[in-house]
Each structure stands twice: as C-alpha cells, then as structure tokens.
Amino acid sequence: MGILVVGSVGLDDIEAPAGLRSGILGGACSYFSTMASLYTKVSMVGVVGTDFPQEHIGFFQGRGIDTRGLQIVDGKTFFWSGYYGPNLDDAITRDTQLNVFADFHPVIPNSQREAEFVFLANIDPELQIEVLEQVNAPRLTALDSMNFWIDSKKDVLTQALSMVDVVMLNETEVKMYASNNNLFDSARHILALGPKALIIKRGEHGAMLITRGEDRGHSVFMVPAYPSESVVDPTGAGDTFAAGFMGYVAKTGELSSQTLRQAVVHGAIAGSFAVEDFSIGRLRCLTWKEIMARYSEFRCLTYFDTLPESECQVFRQSIL
Amino acid sequence: MGILVVGSVGLDDIEAPAGLRSGILGGACSYFSTMASLYTKVSMVGVVGTDFPQEHIGFFQGRGIDTRGLQIVDGKTFFWSGYYGPNLDDAITRDTQLNVFADFHPVIPNSQREAEFVFLANIDPELQIEVLEQVNAPRLTALDSMNFWIDSKKDVLTQALSMVDVVMLNETEVKMYASNNNLFDSARHILALGPKALIIKRGEHGAMLITRGEDRGHSVFMVPAYPSESVVDPTGAGDTFAAGFMGYVAKTGELSSQTLRQAVVHGAIAGSFAVEDFSIGRLRCLTWKEIMARYSEFRCLTYFDTLPESECQVFRQSIL
Predict the structure, then answer these.
(1) A196:B224 CB<8 A
(2) Nearest-5° Cα angle at B29, A304 to B287
(3) Could you point out which of A105, A135, A211, B7 has its C-alpha 20 to 30 Å from the C-alpha of B227?
(4) Is residue A294, in this structure, part of any structural domain at all?
(5) Quick one: closest CA in B to A141, which residue?
(6) pLDDT of residue A307
(7) Do A202 and A192 contact (CB within 8 A), yes or no?
(8) B256, A216: Cβ pair inside 8 Å?
(9) Over chain A, what is the mean pLDDT?
(10) Residue A299: inside a domain, yes or no?
C-alpha cells in the first residue's frame, strides 16, 4: 500500500546566496512526496488554499501521488519566507503565515487507512496523534518534529513519540527534548519511550541511526553527509532525507537492521540531491540511476576494507 | 626502520570534569610514541629538562622506543596547563612555559636518518624543515600544525607543507590556512602545494582523508568519531590519531589508497582510546586485541551492505 505522508504543503519565498525565489512550492509534504514517489506509491494528506497553483497538484498526480487526502479549502496556502547566509547555515525565518493550515485537521481517506508505512512530517503533535488514530496497524510509523513543539507541547509530543516506531530529530532537538547535553543519554531517553529506532540528523555531519537492542544494547550506525560542492538551497533537506529513508524501507518491505542502515544512506542521498536546487527543482528530474550512482559513491566514501574493484578503481592505487 | 617522530615532550596540569591532574606526562611526542609503539619501532626526537622524571624515559624505553634523540638539557621541561569545560570542547590554556623547548633544535641521530616514516608533530615549521633536511629519503612523511603557526609563520609553514606527503590539520585550520570558508576548496588549495594526502580532523565528527588523484580527481574518505561514552581528557587525541595512522602504515608498509583509509580508521581508534583517561593512562595498558575489537566496531558503525555475520550479529535482526 505504499507510504502515507501527512504534513505541510506550502509556498515559499527563499533567499540564498544563489538567488531569490518567490512563491515556489514548499512544505515538508511536497518534498517528501516528490522524493518518495521515486521509490513507491505515496498518498499525501495535507491542506492548501484556493490560491494553490493547480499545476503543482497536477505535478504530484503526474508522479502517481495520490492527492485525495489533500484538502483544498477557502483561504490562502501556508506561506513561509526565509533566507540563508553565505555559509548556508540554519535558515532565518522572515515570515510564517499558517493561513489554511491553522485550522487543519487531517482526514485520512478510507482508501489509505491500511497504509503500510506512515510518515508524520513536522506538524503539531496533536495532529500527528490524530493521524495515528485513523490508520490500521501500519508496519512502520515514523515521526519528525522540531524545537517549537518541544517547547510548546512537550507532553503531547511525548505521547506521539511513544506511539511511533522511528523518530527523526536533529542533534540539537534530541538533546533539547531530553534536557541533556550528552547525545547518547538523550537518545536512550527517547528510545525508552517506545520507538525502536532514532535517527539523528546532523546536517553537514551526516546522520546517525540508533536502534534499540534487546539483549545486546543499542546499535549505532553513522553515515556522513555527501561532500556536496553545489549547495543551492538547504530547505527541505530533512524532509527529503525522510523520504529516502521511508521510500527505501517501503520499496524493500524489510525491517532488518541492515535495511534500515541502507535506508539511512538513501536518506542521506535524497537530502544531498534536494539541496542542489531551489524547491523540488532537483528532485523533479532525479532518476533511479542517479540515486544508485550516489549510493555507490557513499560506499567509496565510507568503506575501508572491501569494495568491488569495479566500483571504486582508485581504491588500491598507491598514492606515491 | 619504523617511525621517527619529532615533537614536544612535556609535563601538563589538566583540569577536566573528571578531576585535576598535576605534572602528568604530556606533549605530542609522548602521546604519539606511546601509541605508535603498539604498531612498530619508534624513535623519538625532542627535548626535556633535567627535572623530567626518569621514570617516563624508562617507560618509553620499556616499550622499545628509541630515546637517543631525546635531548636532556639544563633547565625545566616544557609545561602546559589547561582546562576543559563540561562539554569537553576545546581546551582553554591557562599557562604555557616553553622552558628548554625555546632553544630546541632537533638533531637526528645518525642511526635514525634512514627512517622510513617520519612524523613531524605540531612544532615550529622551521624545526619541521630542519628535520626533513636531516633524513634520507623516507618513504612517507607527515606533518601536523596549528593556528598559531598559520598566523605567525605562514610562509615557512607553506614551505614545510610543500615538503611532506601527508598533512594533518583540523577543519578550522584547513579553512584558516586557505583563507576560504569552503572546506573542499581549502583542501584542494593545500594539496596543490604538493602533499599527496590531507587528513582533516573533525573532533567529535571524525576525520576525512582526501587523496590527490591523477586523472580521476580527488578521492574522499570519511570516518566518524567512535561514539565514546567515557571521555575523560581530550588532550593528545590528535597526536594519538596521528600515531594510529602512521603506526598502521608503517606496520603494513603499504601506501595504497585502501591502506591509508584503514590507517585513518586506526587513527580514529587510537584517538578514541586516548581520551578515556588522563595523559597516556589508557594507552599504557592498551592491547592489540582491544584495537582490533574496536576496528571491528568501526565496521559495524559504518558499513551498510556487507559485513560478516559473525562480526556484527545484530545486523540482520528485524527491529520490530
């Protein structure tokens, strides 16, 4: 049944060293759906206003994305404006207008309640719980959140965290949630709530997967960020990461520790492509062949013992 | 012929969250020699004062380290005092007394001029060049430096960089040397001076190896830092990293790209042990078996496709 994703669909104004773009397609759900549709069938649940360009909906549908859960209501679409400094560090928000998103409550169409994989993008944890209450025994659920909800709705967020299989947060959020400056103590704190796995996003330093072990303790996997030389716009990198991860898991249908590791690599690959253009520009034309080529690059980037000669021919050349 | 190392041998006062230690053995050359002696024969070149405890020299000799290049001159030994805050971030220097190190000029004993591997720890680049002028065609030379020399003696440092095969710097220093905030541009800038490889140390984020390619461009390898839960004292982590790297290269005698990658992993392993106690406390009792166990852990930490079942049994367990 593929992936059900719930999250924001919006329009963005973004300024970055590479230029200024106005009214471009944004929102976690847009990034996630576009990327995940390269792997599997995706159903999106969200809300837009009547000002939302029909061409975007047509684009989603053209990629086989089920948009029946995308509500179109009177009013304006969620809007975000932000800019990035020369180092492309964290975005500075200039303006956020919730618009139709303010009164949004997700309604999962009957046809999608049997979704095997559910991704709850970064929205109000109350809405994330509403979604979980509408789906029937998905095989894997995952959740993203942010500092705003840790600050303002920690109790509800805690409940949501306890209901999902995989939690994705960035390093700062993990420590902030646990009120603990030690990353591993903080991770254990979150895993003790119930999730089987925690993915810690570390921006330019990659990502970490911590899976709960029964008798052997927790298992840690780390992947670096792709050494990208052409970062244009970091917006949506985390949502696209989630799409690579969930997409790969859904495509393989396996939940082994190995599959999850490979899925994290697909997350890193997805994120690395997302930042190469504004909005979903790079993802629109992304091919499976390009994904697999970068997967191979990740092996060359991280392996130190064995690697097929054909895959990385420089591996055994002498440097002198 | 093993490794020739030139650098500081000193006494440290260190305060960290785990406690306060006074007059403990310190200096890049001490950390390097102790660790590298687990891999191969090491000859140290440096200087101490007449106050330097004979027991330390006995310890070095007991590990088979050749101390004939360690000058003992009238005066006090190099002294450094520093402390670490609760996050164990960069050390804050309280006091540095060069003492006998102020007038030090390395003299390489005749018996060591044929050294196959030479490591120039972080000292005045003029002294690093003096060493290079005294050795006969080593197979591999490597150099460490720091912000102080980039600031005060950039021209001499540039000359030293152009004379060695491997440069080891931390991320900030790489960007600082190149006056460029882009890490890869900065790396290319340094490799263009002549070195075959650049190792970028990234502290809690691990390390990166960039090797110069002829026709295929540069090759990048990344290793995360070991997810250590018991950091006591970060002093000497970089020097011990260098020892794991050089030690492994010297032990294998190979200079292939693969060997260098494995050597970087050994560097990360070495650094991860060094920080588990004050001074060389952890390294004193470190065994080859422990090193190889951690090497196996690094495979479990970073591999996502293939791994011998025996080495990482959780790898294929389902998480749900």
Answers:
(1) no
(2) 50
(3) B7
(4) no
(5) B320
(6) 66
(7) no
(8) no
(9) 93
(10) no
Residue A179 in domain: yes
Query: Which residue in B140, B220, B229 is closest to A301 by CB distance?
Result: B220
Closest CB to B258: pick one of A224, A260, A315. A315
Q: For residue A225, give the 3-state DSSP assignment.
A: coil
Distance of alpha carbon B5 from alpha carbon B122, whole angstroms: 11
CA gap A249, A187 in Å, rounded: 22
The radius of gyration of chain A from alpha carbons, rounded to an integer in Å, stands at 19
Q: Coil, helix or strand for A259?
A: helix
CA distance A25 to A23: 7
Chain A residue with minimum CA distance to B209: A301
Nearest-angstrom CA–CA distance, A127 and A163: 13
Residues of B in contact with A302 (CB under 8 A): 221-223, 302-303
Residue to test with chain A: of B167, B314, B315, most A Cβ within 10 A: B314
pLDDT tens by residue, chain A, 320 residues: 699 999 999 999 999 999 999 999 999 999 999 999 999 999 999 999 999 999 999 999 999 999 999 999 999 999 999 999 988 888 899 999 999 999 999 999 999 999 999 999 999 999 999 999 999 999 999 999 999 999 999 999 999 999 999 999 999 999 999 999 889 999 999 999 999 999 999 988 999 999 987 655 688 999 999 998 889 999 999 999 999 999 999 999 999 888 999 999 999 999 999 999 999 999 999 999 999 999 999 998 999 987 655 666 655 566 66
- Asked if A43 contacts A4 with a C-beta cutoff of 8 angstroms, the reply is yes
Contacts of A303 in chain B (CB under 8 A): 261, 302-303
Any A CB within 8 A of B299 CB: yes
The total number of structural domains in chain A stands at 1
Given its phi and psi angles, is residue A194 left (phi above 0), alpha (psi -120 to 50 degrees) or beta? left
SS3 B173: helix
* Distance between CA atoms of residues B312 and A216, nearest Å: 11
d(CA B225, CA B167) in angstroms, rounded, equals 19
Instruction: Spell out the alpha helix ranges (H) of B164-221.
Output: 171-178, 183-191
- From chain A, the residues in CB contact with B212 under 8 A are 319
Q: Say yes or no: A292 contacts chain B, CB-CB below 8 A.
A: no
Specify the amino acid at residue A78. Answer: F
Torsion sign (Cα): B146, B149, B154, B160: negative
Range of the domain at B175: 3-286
| C-beta separation of B71 from B107 below 8 A | yes
B306 found inside a domain: no
Chain B CA closest to residue A185: B229
Residue of A nearest to B87 (CA): A181
- Write out pLDDT tens, residues A100-128: 999 999 999 999 999 999 999 999 999 99
- One DSSP character per residue, B47-97 reads EEETTS-HHHHHHHHHTT-EEEEEEEESSPPEEEEEE--TT--SPEEEEEE
Q: What is the CATH number of the domain that holds B234?
A: 3.40.1190.20
Q: What's the confidence (pLDDT) of residue B229? A: 82
CA distance A79 to A47: 12
